[in-house]
Amino acid sequence: MLYGAPDNPYLPAQLTDVANRAGGLFITRDPTDLGPNIDQTVRQTFRIVGGFSGEFDNRWTWEASFNHGEFTRRFTNNNYVILDRFFAAIDVVSDPVSGDPVCRSDVQTSSVPPTTIFGIPDFDPGIFTFTPGSRECKPANIWGGPGAISQEAIDFITTSVTDELHLEQDVFSAILTGDSADFLNLPAGPIDFVVGVEYRKEQSQNTLNSLDLGILPATSPFGAGTYVGDVSGNQSLGFNATSLFANSSGEFDVTDLFMEVSVPLLMDQPFAEELRIDAAYRYADYSTIGGAETWNVAALWTPHVDLSFRGTISQAIRAPNISELFAPVSAAFFRPVDPCDANEIPNAPDPALRAANCLADGLPATYTDPLSARFAGESGGNPNLQEETADTITYGFVWQPSFVSGFSLTVDYWDVEIADAIASVSAQDIVDNCYDSTTFPNNFCSQFTRNRDSGSAQYLGFNFLRQSPINFAAIEAAGYDVSAIYNLEIGANEFGIRLVGSKQEKLDFFTNPSDLTESDPELQEIQRPEISGTVDLTWERESWRVGWQVQYMSDQLLTGAEIETYQTILGESAWAGESYVHNLYGSLDWSDTVRIYGGINNVEDSEPFPTEEGWPVGPRGRLFFIGLDMDF
């Protein structure tokens, strides 16, 4: 709520008497007329790759390569609100000489513009980015309705700021490929192998704009370059003034040693046209997480030339990426339901335990959440993250019947379990687990604070929360992948049918940090259909190619609906229905170096689901495209 003093000339005349009697008025108003949030992102990528390769007399081959890449992203906010200027601009009086509306700070230079009674946004009052009495401040009329704020005032309050992210990656690799023919031959042939080494280094540098960093400009009464935190309780000059922003940088390197072998056990034998075992092992030494191992073992058995069976068992790891490790601390907004609200106590897994913990934190049994809006906090990377681990089993078959030329069918079953998955604990889980744990206080309690000022309207309500990724989640998934291809030639024409589809049997997330056995089934929720696939019909003749594609997804719930509760909360209206998207494409090879292509995406002009902006189709509807490829 924003304050208007009784002497503010922009107060409507019919409210003047009320303002005089009450000592001023308050207004709730979104400053949408400060201008549209038209942001700009510019990305630049640079990459250079070089290498050498050769062959030994025994036909072993080698290659060595070096790869250097750089990525820069510049994000410009063209409507950044400087908070001390906003509060100064809306604190308006009449100029004692001209009678025109002016900022109070220009005629009463020692005055401190009022902020908001609820601390939303939170701001330590004061003038920091301009000098009172300098006439830099331009009065803003927040009492005249939308569009009442002059462009002059908007230009004073807002500015453009730019943040920059710069990433660099260097990769060196050396690989030796060969077989054991010179020293070992099995009955089915020599053992093929690949050995190699790879070194990779990644660096990141995130540079924030000076206003977010709280660096005062040349127009400040405290001097250019002064940190606002040294002269006030603020840490930034923008809308999240009490949040700490900081530049960040980080780097890590990893050295990999790897080996792969392919061992032929049987070849051209009865019921064993081929029997082969493949194995791979990789050891990675990270500067961040230390040593990590990955491996896989695969088998291929072809009892008949038409039919092959295959299977794989593997363990893989995913090390935290540079963003998860070193993402800069940035402002974020949260609004979890307060678990200590008297109405929420009965909803706890153990109401008595939650009530006792809330009472121990100084919240009475009659406590009611005083917040009416989101509160500010921060999010950022976590340099202490460890690797994720995935255990995978797959098995299936490939059928290419010799009596049906051009046909092949592939079916695979897969089962994946991911442990120590990297994820951010939600704000709701952070506060719930603080008060629902048998140990109080605990690590979750240190991630947020409450307003302990008994004179504040938000007394005891949340006023800060810190969120960062940690290793705690698990994912279990299983399903089938199917691929069927049939190609047919009739004269000079080639026709093709290709089906690629998946049927998922299970998709369970385990993301409750206080109970990692609690499953959250995700299958059939938004963007997680049980069945999905594409069918492509193609025709080719000489240099012409035309295709029709159909993308299918089975029924899925709309955003916000949970598979466990939708029936009791939303009923059958929660389902989005099956989705079919049709695309038409074609191309013409004009010459050996020129190809013309074009098509229509979303031929039926389907719309996104009611709760989505770009799923399962984009917001643009039917899209026509045409292009040209040229080789030089």
Keywords:
632 residues; mainly beta; 18-stranded antiparallel beta sheet; four-stranded mixed beta sheet; elongated
SSE diagram, text form:
Blueprint: E1 2-4, H1 16-22, E2 25-27, E3 39-55, E4 61-81, H2 83-90, E5 92-94, E6 101-103, H3 104-107, H4 151-157, E7 158-179, E8 192-207, E9 248-269, E10 272-286, E11 290-304, E12 307-318, H5 322-326, E13 330-334, H6 351-360, E14 375-379, E15 388-399, E16 407-424, H7 427-436, E17 448-450, E18 462-467, E19 469-490, E20 493-510, E21 520-521, E22 531-541, E23 544-553, H8 566-569, E24 579-589, E25 594-601, E26 623-630
Parallel strand pairs: 14-18
Antiparallel strand pairs: 1-2, 3-4, 4-7, 5-6, 7-8, 8-9, 9-10, 10-11, 11-12, 12-15, 13-14, 15-16, 16-19, 17-18, 19-20, 20-21, 20-22, 22-23, 23-24, 24-25, 25-26
